[in-house]
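step: validate -> pass
step: tokenize input -> pass
step: predict -> running
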Amino acid sequence: MRKLFLFCFSAVFLCCILNAEDQKPVDKEKRANIVKLMELQGMMGYAPDTKGSNPLLKDLRKEQMDKTHELMIFAYDKYLSDADVRDLIALFDGPAWKKFKRVQPLITKEIMTASKALAEKTSGLLKDEENTPVSKMKADPNSAMGKELIKLKEMRTSAALLRIQSSLSFYYSKSEGEYPKNLDSDFKEYMSPLPVELITGSNKVSPGFDGTGGWFYDSKTGVIGLNVKGKDLAGKEYASY
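step: predict -> pass
step: emit ->
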């Protein structure tokens, strides 16, 4: 097993050497700047030696890391100009970045705590509402969650209206050019019960638009629409759905 590991390690090391030899030398001054940038980024360190590891492996590990650093320097040189490197050094060696590194654990901890609290709150809301119809769920338009719920209601209501309109067209084609006079009775064979519009949570049918909820329907023309006042989140009148 040790021989196999040594062979694999050597193969990786050899690849690094071959790749590095294909690269053009980096300008001396730019190279020094790149090394400084990599040090500021914490990319020039070595993994700690394993206690009691094979001396040969330790040497190979160090040489491999040296070659890896060389490849990284070549990559920095290829994609960044010297001016870019200097700007990045100013950033990573500046007071703002140093402060960020100091407070980063605190920021991460606070974000994780807030995210956990939000997840627990959301989970609790979903658990409370899991058996509640969407039409009865409360939606606060001033909150992000409320807006998403309103959007869901609007999408489902629009889809329900399309289903009714499609069924009416099918009824018309089967009834020699006539629309059902009453959607509660004459239309049962095609759609029963009539879908609920989720804006107000009603599926009542009115002969004309009065904004009292449900649907408005003209049996002579077959026109059906959303009998709800107001506009959706996109600014479109509900009655124009």
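step: describe -> The radius of gyration is 34 Å.
step: cleanup -> pass
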